[in-house]
Design brief:
The chain is α+β, with helices and mostly antiparallel strands and about 270 residues long. It has two domains: about 50 residues; about 200 residues, Extracellular Endonuclease, subunit A (Extracellular Endonuclease, Chain A, 3-Layer(aba) Sandwich), CATH 3.40.570. Helices cover about 25% and strands about 20% of the residues. The protein contains three helices and 13 strands; from the N terminus they run ααββββββββαβββββ. A seven-stranded mixed sheet has the order 1-2-11-10-9-4-3, with helices on one face. A two-stranded antiparallel ribbon has the order 5-6. A two-stranded antiparallel sheet has the order 7-8. A hairpin with a 2-residue loop joins strand 5 and strand 6.
């Protein structure tokens, strides 16, 4: 190999390293500029690495069931480079299409919602939850429940939608106890991650937009507990657009996804999103 080629390859590698270092320095500066005070350089790198992971890693939707979560991995990833594969021009009527349960009584097909501002409701309309989806085995760790009844289409954005999926003005509390709209979801996935994206939808609706939202729990084979949930949404004016996969995991807990049973594992870490 000529000296010129060696130099060119070395120079290219050096430039790549410099770019990464420069990016870390810039992001660290932004972090401090926002008033954050990480306790160490490792903390800075960890925060930056997590951010870079979400913006760079993307998985095709047909590969989601094959993904395994490893302790310390980010709690969600992008699908299709975070671009929804929904047609905003397909919004015609305010409704939710609830798919039938599969042969294992799972919500494995996913639900499709056509939403508008009148569907936004507040927490005061929450009612008692009593449906137990497949793999429902509640346990408390440090006094807190490890699983929730996860709604595919959140009640807070489905005000007026009946269990048939049609808009009913008098049903302001939304569809909260529909077996076709529930799955066993970890408390972390439900409260720490999914709420982030539900908030994006509510914000878009409150701005007067119409939104198409698709939510699908991802099961592997005949397992009764979902490995995660696939969420994608787009507004008709395209100002809202996301496509993500949330791992159905819980800090300090390991699950047997075939049954939903679990055991405490203090080595299991799940970073905050």
């Amino acid at each position: 190999m000529s000296q010129h080629k060696k130099y060119h390859r070395r120079k290219k590698s050096t430039l790549g390293l410099k770019s990464i270092v420069s990016l870390i320095v810039i992001l660290a500066g932004m972090w401090f500029g926002l008033g954050q005070q990480p306790t160490s350089l490792n903390s800075i790198v960890s925060q930056i690495s997590s951010s870079l992971f979400h913006t760079s890693k993307s998985v095709p939707s047909d590969q989601l069931a094959k993904l395994d979560y490893h302790s310390g991995d980010p709690s969600y990833i992008f699908v299709n480079h975070n671009k929804a594969q929904l047609d905003p021009n397909s919004w015609k009527t305010n409704k939710v299409i609830y798919a039938n349960l599969d042969n294992f009584n799972r919500t494995s097909t996913g639900n499709l919602a056509y939403l508008e501002p009148r569907n936004v409701v507040s927490d005061e309309n929450r009612v008692r939850q009593y449906v137990e989806p497949t793999a429902w085995h509640q346990k408390f760790v440090n006094g807190q429940p490890i699983i929730n009844r996860g709604h595919l289409i959140a009640y807070s954005i489905s005000g007026g939608i009946s269990s048939s999926g049609q808009y009913q003005p008098n049903d302001i509390s939304g569809d909260q106890n529909n077996p076709k709209n529930l799955f066993t979801q970890t408390s972390f996935s439900n409260q720490r991650i999914q709420t982030i994206f539900e908030s994006k939808i509510r914000e878009s609706l409150r701005k007067g937009n119409k939104v198409i939202f698709f939510a699908k729990p991802i099961f592997r084979g005949n397992e009764l507990m979902a490995r995660g949930i696939h969420l994608e949404a787009i507004s008709t004016n395209r100002s809202l657009n996301f496509n993500v996969y949330l791992f159905n995991v819980q800090p300090n807990v390991q699950f047997d996804y075939a049954t939903g049973r679990s055991h405490i594992d203090r080595s299991m870490t799940v970073p905050e999103p």
